[in-house]
Amino acid sequence: MSNTDILSNWENLVKKQLKTEDIYLVLEKQNLEGIEVKPFYTEVQKPLVNLPRVEESTHLVARYHESLEEEVFAFILDQNVENLDQKTLFVNNKDLAGHISPKEEDQYFSLIDVFNEKEGTIDDQLVKELLAKEFKRNICVDISFHQNAGAAIYQQLGIALAKAKELVEAYGAEVLSKLIFRIAVGGGYFFEMAKLRAFKIVFNQLSKEYGLDEVPYIFAETSLRNKAVADNENNLIRSTLELASAMIGGADAVFSNNYLVDRSTDNSEEISFKQQIVLAYESIINVFEDASNGSYYVEDITQQFAEKAWDLFVEIEEAGGYLELLKQGVIQKKIYDHAIQEQQWIEEGKIKLIGVNLYPKLDVKKSIGDLYNEKEIKAVRWAEMFE
Questions:
Q1: For residues 197 and 216, what is the distance between their CA atoms, to the nearest angstrom?
Q2: Which helix (H) or strand (E) holds 218?
Q3: CB of 246 within 8 A of CB of 182?
Q4: What is the mean pLDDT of residues 269-286?
Q5: Based on CB atoms within 10 Å of each CB, which residue in 6, 125, 145, 378 is the most buried?
Q6: With pLDDT > 90 as the criterion, what percentage of the chain qualifies?
Q7: Which residue segments constitute the domains of the chain, with CATH numbers given?
């Protein structure tokens, strides 16, 4: 049976079930990304090869705690810890990075953002200090902040490329092999898989502009944007799905932010990490290379995100580059415009946050103007409107 026959049979069945001839109008689902999503796929226009990652399998990263030393092999470090052997360590503190002398049996990565978003500058001294370190990846390009501030997926990827380009211009093309990208994974399960895959495509494309063939190192963490202070159980479910998206999408490392949002306990830290353990050990999705390759839907939206992200990157470059547009307030305004659209959908219930906006407390509600500022890239959780 041909694809045309399959599509015709499917359409006839759905017309009968929905009692309408115009099924695509009924099945159409809007999104704020400007991505075309079909209700049914029979092929993909340009099949993609497997999109590799840097690591053989995804690192499962926990915030350091002494009790986890035996069972965890990758930690985020905010303070110095002695006598850690054969660990992968993600340094998250500028002062700590200055005092670390990497040991041969350990792997060190920097998660310290070298960009000053408020001033539109790069911390040149910090970059040089980090590049002098014997880290596996020395310089972090942080766009998790942009996701939590409400940037669209294509905006996050375009900004990541533009920030990488600023580093190349300042420190040469060889810096591309020293970058680690810190990316927050949101609640759009398939969209977020496609986001990571699209970034691999566009970053590789950027590297080829300099005669290289680089694969981006992706450190993916769960988003804070769709979490609520009073909805811990749903936070846990959402962050588990986000971790799955990251692993299937091909992240090199994953980290789960504490699902309690506004506080932390030893128990919540342990549960947050064990979300990763359950996913990895029960389904081994952290091992497969490009597990979503072959899904017509994911392939199609991956290519759409890649095209939109590259177009935005070119637009930024032609207008003067990321730092210049930060100083002009253009980047802030782009993110603000998308963020308030998202928040309006939350307010109207078009984006459903169970336990938050479907049955909100009527006496507690902030305005969008209270939450956002068009001159500032500011992390805002959707649920803050109702808290």
A1: 10
A2: strand 217-222
A3: no
A4: 89
A5: 145
A6: 69
A7: 59-298 (3.20.20.240)
